[in-house]
Design brief:
The protein is an alpha+beta fold. The chain has 6 domains: 2-40 and 164-191, 2-Layer Sandwich (Phenylalanyl-tRNA Synthetase, Chain B, domain 1); 46-158, Nucleic acid-binding proteins (OB fold (Dihydrolipoamide Acetyltransferase, E2P)); 203-411, Phenylalanyl-trna Synthetase, Chain B, domain 3 (Phenylalanyl-tRNA Synthetase, Chain B, domain 3), CATH 3.50.40.10; 419-486, Phenylalanyl-tRNA Synthetase, Chain B, domain 1 (2-Layer Sandwich); 503-600 and 614-730, Bira Bifunctional Protein, Domain 2 (BirA Bifunctional Protein, domain 2); 745-832, Ferrodoxin-fold anticodon-binding domain (Alpha-Beta Plaits). Helices cover 26% and strands 28% of the residues. It contains 21 helices and 42 strands. Strands 28-31-32-38-37-36-35 form a 7-stranded mixed β-sheet, with helices on both faces. It has a 5-stranded antiparallel β-sheet with strand order 5-4-3-6-11, with no helix packed on it. A 5-stranded mixed β-sheet has the order 13-24-15-23-16. The longest helix is centred in the last third of the chain and has 19 residues, at 810-828. It is elongated and about 115 Å long.
């Protein structure tokens, strides 16, 4: 919400010396968020000038310019020669002149310059050049905005261009602050400054009107509430839509972020911002019969003011005349009854619509408007009559209309809940010792009626505060008005016996271990394409089921991810494009794994404000695909850069497998690696990761075309693990009580096996045969070449043996080694290499 300070000062006393930052600080004190300060970015001298004369001069390019003589007053140099390309002004007109040294929004500095054969000593400005709107078709003539001032007058202050607006963020529960009325009241709460409520008018000043047929017919109420509880119409005849909007009003609307659209629309927007009550104006001559508030009929359509033809939903609330819908209630009017320059009679409508109905309609049609923002947060039910009268008064004053007795009103009794507030409840909840006088005073300041009872108070909230619904919201208001700075910072005492779960501990250990080894965690969005899911989501490739979003953030990525790799590739691409080519990345995140044949997301969502039954919740849970937490790694570029005496070392499978070992140690498991295949990975450089015989992930090098498709140069290695499954297999971590103090015996063995036999399986056979004395087994060489028969390979393993109670002899170590060789020979035909 943007709040021009000159407008704010009409309703609350803001000190003349108060800066925009002071006003923002006061509003922050009562719970608003500071956003920005908005000004007209211009500097003087900008003055009122009068066109003395001009000479039209046709140019060779077909354009005709005017060589003007403009009087800007003796204090600014008297009559100046100015070149102007506009043709909508006349001799004697008073205009806005920007003199040399001035700066217009852009920034656009003004200087005397030679153009079209003359030295133009300044510029005659249009409304757009001053920042007052989008119209740059002609010069701003002061007579058109109702201003007559002496020549030489400072035009910045005259047009209100020295005004400034502060912008605050209004939370959804405080819709009353989407108005000058609400913000002024809050500033009064913060500072104690006197407040004048523009929504309070004597009943004799407000005329309801009569004779215009209106009705509310709602055969499909939402939550038992009809679509409209207040509906007021008034008629103003004989308006002149060609009249200019007053300059001060244009200035305030501009600072508030509203574009000037002509005096009729500007007045309705002005009152909406002032009182928080959206107003709609109809061209009375284009209406057929009276107005009815009802739900749309199936198949009905409406062309809204934005030119879109919208197919209406039976739950949409519409305003209709005898011809059909003429407006989408509370959201946007219809084009068929739009006010235009030809409008002479205006029907003014002010209403209170059901907030849930308006919110659903706005989202259903993706049509958020200034009106819907206010209605869905709640409009003061006591304001429509006052707002309608305010619009009528302004139309009479600035559009030359005549207030007509014709009108109509439908309304219901305003129900104000009675809330009980026990004595001591606020202090107990907030943690501050408030006196009864402070509690009562804070509630009365925000407009509540407070009646003292035996054990506390009965509180009736004001009509503009639908968010006050119970004792907890009342307590929050007391804390807000008294000052959040009084609330102490006290850390709660954690209940005993609780802490991180084993799974949380495991995830944190693994993430910390990876970070300690140089990996960088890079969380990414869980959205991707079906093609990426097919490529990286399974070992076999081919089309896989994906869950797609009904309303994705990006149309190019509508599917929930099955793998973390696509997100890591995007992060890597972003870094490479910025010159960061050496990457070791990891992510811990959720993947979504729908099962074939199951239709996810087909369950209808229950209505708002209705608690779903247990059966509905079970059905909703069943419509959500299984979600597993995965761990993904990506390595690219160099693991060690070039340096004196050392060649650069590219990151690859070796480094990826080292990271897998780090993960295994942190998780407390043994991860075995065997050769495998995946659709996106190099067939000869892919490994399957298993724990206790269960596959938990994979490691491998991306195919060159896959890496190229991600715009990543060189080799790219990835790892992906089912982290939930990995930690499930880890179980309870075993803490080793002591280490053997006896020396180890080391042995090497080289075995010749067929090329197709995985080294991991040969290693497992050696370990199984060697028995308990084997402490460590490591593959140190894989040789294929001269001296080894074609179709075979030589695998060399380093073995370390140790006994817990004695020093092993070399014979014992050799015996254990040969026992392992025997098992390998039995399973794979392995023979010792000579």
């Amino acid at each position: 919400m943007r709040v021009p300070l000159s407008w704010l000062r009409e309703f609350v006393e803001v000190p003349a010396e108060a800066t925009p930052e002071d006003v923002l600080a006061s509003l922050v004190r009562v719970g608003f968020e500071e956003e920005d300060v908005h000004r007209f970015e211009l500097e003087g001298p900008i003055v009122v000038g009068q066109v003395v004369s001009f000479e039209p001069e046709p140019q060779s390019n077909g354009k005709t310019i005017r060589w003007c003589q403009v009087d800007v007053g003796p204090e600014h140099g008297g009559v100046r020669g100015i070149v102007c390309g506009a043709a909508n002004f006349f001799a004697g007109d008073k205009v806005v002149v920007t003199l040399p040294g001035a700066v217009l929004p852009g920034p656009f500095p003004i200087a005397a310059r030679k153009t079209y054969g003359h030295v133009s000593d300044g510029m005659i400005a249009s409304a757009k050049e001053l920042g007052l709107g989008a119209d740059h078709s002609g010069i701003l003539r002061l007579v058109e905005v109702g201003i007559d001032a002496p020549v030489g007058t400072d035009a910045i202050s005259l047009l209100g261009l020295d005004d400034v607006a502060v912008e605050i963020n209004v939370t959804p529960d405080r819709g009353y602050a989407l108005s000058l009325r609400g913000v002024a009241r809050e500033y009064s709460h913060a500072t104690g400054a006197p407040f004048r409520d523009p929504g309070l008018r004597d009943s004799a000043e407000v005329h309801p009107g009569e004779g215009f047929p209106i009705a509310v017919r709602d055969d499909a109420p939402i939550r038992g509430r009809v679509g409209a509880t207040e509906f007021v119409v008034r008629v103003v005849r004989g308006v002149d839509a060609s009249r200019p909007t007053p300059a001060w009003m244009v200035t305030r609307l501009t600072l508030a972020g509203i574009r000037s659209l002509g005096v009729l629309v500007d007045i309705t927007n002005y009152v909406m911002l002032e009182l928080g009550a959206p107003i709609h104006g109809y061209d009375l001559a284009r209406l057929t019969g009276g107005l009815t508030v009802r739900r749309a009929a199936p198949g009905e359509t409406l062309r809204t003011l934005d030119g879109q033809v919208r197919t209406l939903d039976p739950q949409d609330l519409v305003i209709a005349d005898e011809s059909g819908p003429v407006g989408l209630a509370g959201v946007m009017g219809g084009a068929s009854t739009e006010m235009s320059v030809a409008t002479t009679d205006v029907l003014v409508e002010a209403a209170v619509f059901d907030s849930v109905s308006i919110a659903r309609t706005a989202r259903r049609h993706k049509l958020s408007s200034e009106a819907s923002r206010r209605f869905e947060r709640g409009v003061d039910p006591a304001i429509p009559f006052v707002a309608a009268q305010r619009v009528v008064d302004l139309l009479v004053q600035y559009a030359g209309g005549t207030a007509d007795a014709t009108g109509g009103a439908l309304y219901t009794e305003i129900e104000r809940p009675v809330l009980e507030l026990p004595e001591g409840f606020v202090s107990g909840l907030i943690g501050v010792d408030y006196t009864p006088e402070q509690v009562r005073g804070a509630l009365e300041r925000i407009g509540c009626d407070v009646r003292e009872e035996t054990c506390g108070w009965e509180v009736v909230p004001p009509t503009w505060r639908p968010d006050l619904t119970d004792m907890w919201t009342l307590a929050e208001e007391v804390a807000r008005i008294d000052g959040y700075d009084r609330i102490p910072s006290v850390l709660p005492t954690a209940p005993s016996g609780r802490g991180w779960t084993p799974a949380q501990q495991g995830r944190r250990r693994i993430a910390n271990a990876l970070a300690a080894t140089g990996f960088v965690e890079t969380p990414s969005f869980p959205f991707t394409t079906e093609e990426e899911n097919d490529r990286h989501g399974s070992a076999s490739g081919g089309h896989l089921p994906s869950v797609t979003l009904a309303n994705p953030l990006a149309g190019q990525a509508p599917a929930l991810r099955r793998s973390l790799v696509p997100g890591l590739l995007q992060v890597a691409h972003r870094n490479v494009s910025r010159g960061l080519t050496d990457l070791t990345l990891f992510e811990v995140g959720t993947v979504f794994l729908p099962q074939p044949g199951v239709a996810y997301g087909t369950v209808s969502v229950p209505p708002l404000a209705v608690r779903p039954s247990a059966a509905t919740l079970t059905e909703l849970d069943a419509a959500i695909p299984p979600q597993r937490r995965h761990l993904g790694l990506l390595l690219a570029g160099l693991v060690s850069p070039k340096q004196p005496g050392r060649a650069p070392e590219p990151a690859g499978l070796t480094e990826a497998l080292d990271a897998v070992r780090v993960i295994a140690v942190a998780a407390g498991v043994e991860i075995e690696v065997t050769q495998g295949e995946r659709s996106a990975l190099h067939p000869g450089r892919t490994g399957v990761l298993t724990v206790q015989g269960t596959e938990v992930g994979y490691v491998g090098e991306l195919l060159p075309d896959v890496a190229a498709a991600a715009d990543l140069p060189g080799r790219v290695t990835v790892v992906e693990l089912d982290l939930d499954l990995l930690l499930e297999r880890a179980g309870e971590r075993v803490v080793v009580a002591s280490l053997s103090g006896y020396p180890a015996a080391t042995q090497d063995v080289s075995l010749v096996v067929p090329v197709a036999v995985p080294a991991a399986e040969v290693s497992a056979a050696l370990a199984e045969g060697a028995g308990d004395l084997l402490e460590s087994l490591r593959l140190v060489d894989d040789y294929r070449g001269a001296g080894v028969e074609e179709g075979t390979k030589s695998l060399t393993f380093a073995l370390r043996f140790r006994a817990p109670d004695r020093t092993l002899t070399s014979a014992e170590a050799s015996e254990a080694k040969l026992a392992g060789v025997a098992v390998a020979a039995e399973r794979f035909g392995a023979v010792l290499r000579d």
